[in-house]
Amino acid sequence: MMKNNNKIMAKRKRKIAKRLKRKQWKNQPKPMFTASNIHYEMDGRHEGIACGGIGAIHLMNKNSGFVEEIDSALHLLKRHLPYHES
User: Fold this and answer.
1) CA 41 – CA 50 distance, rounded (Å)
2) Max CA pair span of the chain
3) Which one, 7, 26, 61, 75, has the greatest CB density within 10 A?
4) Concatenated DSSP letters for 13-55?
């Protein structure tokens, strides 16, 4: 039983180390979330889901120039990966 536990613990440690390993990301010239193809449909009861407006808010921020302001001024992440924070 002890041998089996050691194998399980070693496997878990390898998985954690793999997940935490620094990755070499290529530079992203454009945002990962583009908000370019947003369509809304209503069901017969006119109910939606709670997260349904996220795309509309993102599109509004993108069109107002707020996204570019965030990208240029805010360095929020502990370890900067080359993608846009907004």
Assistant:
1) 14
2) 62
3) 61
4) HHHHHHHHS---PPP-SS-S----S------TT----TTTTHH
Tell me the pLDDT tens digit for each residue of 53-78: 787 888 888 889 888 888 777 766 55
Read off the amino acid at residue 34. Answer: T
Q: Is the pLDDT confidence value at 46 over 70?
A: no
- Token pair, residue 11, equals 């496997």
CA distance linking residue 21 with residue 14, whole number of Å: 10
How big is the chain, counted in residues?
A: 86
Q: Given the structure tokens 């109910």, which residue do they identify?
A: 47
pTM of the predicted structure, to 2 decimals: 0.43
Structural contact between residues 58 and 33, judged by C-beta atoms closer than 8 angstroms: yes
